[in-house]
Design goal:
Strand order of the largest sheet: 1-4-3-2-5-6
Order of helices and strands: EEEEEE
Number of helices: 0
Helix content: under 10%
Number of strands: 6
Distance between the termini: 9 Å
Shape: globular
Oligomer: single chain
Radius of gyration: 12 Å
Largest sheet: 6 strands, antiparallel, barrel
Length: 76
Amino acid sequence: MARTMEFKMERPNLVTVGQEVDIREGTLPNSVFYYVIEPAVAMSGNFSLGERLFERKGTVTDIKENDRGFYVTVTF
């Protein structure tokens, strides 16, 4: 089963729909994880240990813009 994850991107046109992207995992205290589309294009929210992502490559499936910025959906 495919998993999707949303990332916040600050500027437009850093990735495109259909593009394969590399993901880096970061760790915060108390087993909290976050993910970054490399090279520092967009960042995910925080995830608990049970929600941890084990894939390191994904495909951009959607990019949406709203008043808070750009949101990139990646499918793994």
